[in-house]
Amino acid sequence: MSSREFGPWDEAEIDFSDGIERLDLGGLLVKATPGVDVQVQADEATGSVTQLTFAQPGAAVQVQPYAAPKSGGMWQDVRGQIRSSITKSGGLVEEVNGTFGVELQTQVTGDDGKMQPARFAGIDGARWFLRAVFLGAAAKPGPEADILEGLVRDLVVVRGGDAMPVGAPIPMKLPNSPASHSAPAVLPDGRPILAPFIRGPELTETR
């Protein structure tokens, strides 16, 4: 099972008089972290965020919140989908015990056709599930991973009270203040960190 003892948090668990400044992205509230850029990809017509990436030199983490059943346990099902998808596409998958409980350590084919490391973590919350994909240097233990794991721990998920199908992405929006950066995160050799191409009922993203 995934552990939420130290976050990420549900909005009901937060005292918003704590004085912490958080960027409002709708379904996620993000605590500012020095040295980390917030890269937002959005649908120009609707303003809906379709991809959210936190990046620093040579490392990044992509996050997406989903609606989940009250009983939780969604990460166990999603892990199977990810494992099957990566294996079928010729990648490598190993199940490991990581910072967020059971994680998937993988090698996936990026858009450039080259293999890149990616570490998948899943956190089951209160009627929500958060998927985090650590890329580049953050895919393995080290200072880059520590910083981005801390950022994920500080996230606040705003599920809302509306009925949503299990596995539906929780809507996110562009922040009121500028936060997106057009330059992608890059690996030490200058190659961009590319999103792993993963399909599945709970993992489909709008492009």
Approximately how much beta-strand content do the residues carry?
25-35%
CATH architecture: 3-Layer(aba) Sandwich
Largest sheet: 7 strands, antiparallel
Q: Might you state the CATH topology name?
A: Protein Transport Mog1p, Chain A
Could you say which overall geometry the principal axes of the C-alpha atoms support? globular
- Overall number of structural domains: 1
Uncertain stretches: 178-184, 195-207
Number of helices: 2
Structure description:
The chain has 2 helices and 11 strands; from the N terminus they run ββββββαββββαβ. It has 207 residues and is mainly beta. The chain has a single domain (9-157), classed as Protein Transport Mog1p, Chain A. The strands form 2 sheets. The chain has a 7-stranded antiparallel sheet with strand order 4-5-6-10-9-8-7, sandwiched between helices. The longest helix has 15 residues, at 74-88. InterPro entries: DUF3710. Pfam families: DUF3710 (PF12502).
Q: In terms of topology, how is this protein built?
A:
Elements: E1 9-10, E2 22-24, E3 28-31, E4 37-42, E5 49-56, E6 59-67, H1 74-88, E7 92-98, E8 101-109, E9 115-124, E10 128-136, H2 143-153, E11 156-157
Parallel strand pairs: 1-11
Antiparallel strand pairs: 2-3, 3-11, 4-5, 5-6, 6-10, 7-8, 8-9, 9-10
Keywords:
207 residues, mainly beta, Protein Transport Mog1p, Chain A, 7-stranded antiparallel β-sheet, 4-stranded mixed β-sheet, 2 helices, 13% helix, globular, DUF3710
Quick recap of the structure?
This protein is 13% helix and 33% strand.
